[in-house]
Amino acid sequence: MAQNETDVLRYGWIDPLASARVTAMGGSFGALGADLSCMGINPAGLGMYRRGDLAMTAGVHTGSTNALWGTRQVEAAQADVVASNYGVALTYPSVDADWPFFTLAVGHQNRTPFAQKVEIDGVSTGNSVSDLFVSQALDDAAAYGYASTDDALDAGEIFGNGASLAWRTGLLLPDNDTLYATAAEGNVTVDRTIERQGRLGETQIAFGTMFQDRVSIGVTLGLPRVSFEESSTHRESVNAADADLQDWAYE
Predict the structure, then answer these.
(1) Residue 103: its pLDDT value, please?
(2) Which residues are 108's β-sheet partners?
(3) What is the 3-state secondary structure (H, E, C) of the chain?
(4) Is the pLDDT assigned to residue 41 strictly greater than 80?
(5) Model confidence over 89-128: pLDDT tens digits?
(6) How deeply is 250 buried, as exposed, middle or buried, from its count of CB atoms within 10 A (0-12, 13-18, 19+)?
(7) Backbone angles phi, psi at 199, to 5 degrees
């Protein structure tokens, strides 16, 4: 289930990783038939089978990512070996001349891999992510009507997740003038790593046949499965040598 715009784009773009024959023919083999990839493209193509089939196709999936942070642009490429398509087709002859063969197929197709890794390092900026935590704390304090730092702190943990972690680790400090302030002052150098893993795949059970060698009929039951995991590390180093806080990381 998509949670935001990014998830809609990620799960809405399906890139079928078919068998070697289908890929070599630009996908047209789905109409020609007698290939396990027909289960996900055109199950009626299973009616072209005249004998069983056991197949697996592996390939190399490559992808590139462009990232922009301020004026720093980074392009990252990654290649992964993927078992794109595998399964078995069992073809049975019939005693009815009008329906000479029936094919039952079971297989799995990996439709979209999500492997990505982006590393951005050495970006100097005057904006720290810790400023966001300060903003969260100020918004919470204003929402609850606290007039001073002491009142807000005495009330307990009212911060959001990010601001709460910042307060516990000393990144967020009490300040009588602005209620809260960040310990990371001045310009900072940012290093950030984002890594994504997972894939969108589908297990398929299909049936196909042909009537009088003229009309193909097929049906597929698809059982999709999505796995996705993202981890990121944000690290900032304070440029001022005399700063009390030299560096911090947020994962």
Answers:
(1) 96
(2) 86, 203
(3) CCCCHHHHHHHHCCCCCCCHHHHHCCCCHHHHCCCCCHHHHCHHHHHHCCCCEEEEEEEEEEEEEEEEECCEEEEEEEEEEEEEEEEEEEEEECCCCCCCEEEEEEEEEEEEECCEEEEEEEEEECCCCHHHHHHHHHHHHHHHCCCCHHHHHHCCCCCCHHHHHHHHCCCEEEECCCEEEECCCCCEEEEEEEEEEEEEEEEEEEEEEEECCCEEEEEEEEEEEEEEEEEEEEEEEECCCCCCCCEEEEC
(4) yes
(5) 999 999 899 999 999 999 998 877 788 888 888 888 888 8
(6) middle
(7) -165, 160
Query: What are the structural domain ranges in the chain?
Result: 5-114+199-229, 123-189+237-250
Task: Identify whether the C-beta of residue 205 lies closer than 8 Å to the C-beta of residue 221.
Answer: yes
Q: Indicate the length of the chain as a whole number.
A: 251
The count of C-alpha atoms lying within 13 angstroms of the C-alpha of 188, restricted to the half-sphere facing its C-beta, is 23
Which residue reads 């329906």 in tokens?
Answer: 99
pLDDT of residue 229 exceeding 70, the answer is yes
